[in-house]
């Protein structure tokens, strides 16, 4: 079983829409969780960390459900510039980071 | 945040040859990581490069194929040896900011093996 699993999409949504991505992880002892964004032909960059209590950064909301071992990312009022691949990342033991395969989002005018 | 550069940014190589990729960080870091991202796939950790000791390789990756050097706390190299078309991929180095538990990535090296 993979450490991290994501729906690869693609998600094609109109501007202004709300879109949600989910990700599941296999190691129940995992402590750190992140969402990274990767633009085409670019390196991944941290979008936001995911805290147990959930956290929000502008139009982006990340949530963690430890009981079900999943992480979610909600994007409200989608912008064209949100088009990218979103990677779910889990850091189980403080050493290696495990990356999901990524969810592709295209925001359409 | 760390600033990471990689050279070359891209290369096209013939099978059977080797390519060495360089990674330079603007600050001293204990561990550097080398990842591979094959087309349409996510990142796979190849190895962790520790200064002053042998690199630690992940399952499926061996030193003979991917020798790594770590001569100091700001620099590392990854060599892709005896290349085949299956090695065509993006190779990324990264470092971890332990204060914020965040990984920073270099811009990547896009390798195509003919």
Write up what this structure looks like.
- The complex is a heterodimer of chains A (109) and B (114).
- With 109 residues, chain A is an all-beta fold.
- Chain A is 0% helix and 53% strand.
- Chain A has no helices and eleven strands.
- In chain A, the strands form two sheets. In chain A, strands 2, 4, 5, 9, 10 and 11 form a six-stranded mixed beta sheet that branches. In chain A, strands 1-3-8-7-6 form a five-stranded antiparallel beta sheet, with no helix packed on it.
- In chain A, a hairpin with a 4-residue loop joins strand 7 and strand 8.
- The termini of chain A are far apart.
- In chain B, strands 2, 4, 5, 6, 9, 10 and 11 form a seven-stranded mixed beta sheet that branches. In chain B, strands 1-3-8-7 form a four-stranded antiparallel beta sheet, with no helix packed on it.
- With 114 residues, chain B is mainly β.
- In chain B, strand 4 (31-37) and strand 5 (43-50) form a beta hairpin.
- Helices cover 0% and strands 54% of the residues of chain B.
- Chain A binds chain B through residues 32, 34, 41-46, 49, 87, 89, 91, 94-97, 99-102, and chain B through 41-45, 48, 58, 92, 100-108, 110.
Quick overview of this protein structure:
The complex is a heterodimer of chains A (109) and B (114). Chain A has 109 residues and is mainly β. In chain A, 0% of the residues lie in helices and 53% in strands.
Low-confidence stretches of chain A: none
Structural class, judged by helices and strands of chain B? mainly beta
Strand content of chain A: over 45%
Give Rg of chain A in angstroms: 13 Å
Order of helices and strands of chain B: EEEEEEEEEEE
Q: Biggest interface between protein chains, with counts per chain?
A: A-B, 20 and 18 residues
Topology summary:
The complex is a heterodimer of chains A (109) and B (114).
Chain A: E1 4-6, E2 11-14, E3 19-25, E4 32-38, E5 45-50, E6 55-57, E7 60-65, E8 70-75, E9 84-91, E10 98-99, E11 103-108
Parallel strand pairs in A: 2-11
Antiparallel strand pairs in A: 1-3, 3-8, 4-5, 4-9, 6-7, 7-8, 9-10, 9-11
Chain B: E1 4-7, E2 10-13, E3 19-25, E4 31-37, E5 43-50, E6 56-57, E7 68-72, E8 75-80, E9 89-97, E10 102-105, E11 109-113
Parallel strand pairs in B: 2-11
Antiparallel strand pairs in B: 1-3, 3-8, 4-5, 4-9, 5-6, 7-8, 9-10, 9-11
